[in-house]
Amino acid sequence: MTYISCVVAIGREFSGSQRTLCLAILNSSHVVASIAYPYCLEWLTEQYGLTGTFLILGGFTFNAMVFFAICLVNRDKCKNNKTSVCYDAENGHNVQFDKTKTSLRRRVSNVFFKSKKYLSTPYLFILVAAGILLSSLDGYLAVMFDIALWKQIDSSRALLSFVIFSSFSAVSCLVPGLLKQIKGINSCIYPIFASLAGGIGQLIVYFSNNYITYMTGTSLIGVAYGGIVSSSMNAVVKIVELEFVPVATGLLLTVEGLLAIGSGPLFGWLRDTTGSYGSVLMAIMAVHWLSLVLYMLAWIFRTHEKNKHKTPETVYGESPGTPERNENDDLVF
To answer: Does some domain include residue 322?
Structure first.
């Protein structure tokens, strides 16, 4: 819930390249924290004991509550009791309503009756691609240590592979935001690149016979994980109207979580059936190639929708009086 709230807050406060960069920083921050957290937890336990450690971690958590309280106050001030038009699902027509007095029942009903506004074809492709790929990578993380031992890598170096994976994931999370700052570069190609990098990384791990090649494959898989997490969230915020970003983001995380529940047992069954982790790596590799195709289809349909809404006569910024180019007109996710 905290993560989705942060995505919504960034979507409200920032736009364009600034929004993409902030989302990239948000997605990379939890990866960086996952690297430092075990070391900090060990130090806190040694210094303050188990009880003191839980108190300190609870204090960190309460800081998030203060942040969202500030966001809520600013949101109420910005509304300023303005009225807007909303579709009344019960009566079947548009009505004027006060944004500060919208009933929960109306908001819930509009989520279903306005589902076409966020369940677009590009979003569905991204939903399926990100769901199956992230869940398979979550399952890979669960067996990554065992795969390293299967590749006859000693346990200390096998544990180091988690740090390498997380480090490349954190850097990869920042790339979509940085690409957005450069004019002429389409940031929507990054999830396609990330899927390709992950598939190649799985192939390298499968054929690796030494520590260097294994770490190279692990690094590419980390690039894929960070790139998919960051670019998928950027895509959701870009495609979906701001009103439905919480629903679309929550649906994406829910699908990924439900699929991740089954990825671990599935990989375990493959390992027990074949007697080798090679089948697991091949299955994850196939998911990468499938996600690559789905991301390409999402990009194609997104480009088609953008071109369909443009008229040939419209030229942006050619002369005074012509319409200004809106940030949402970019052919990107």
So the answer is: no
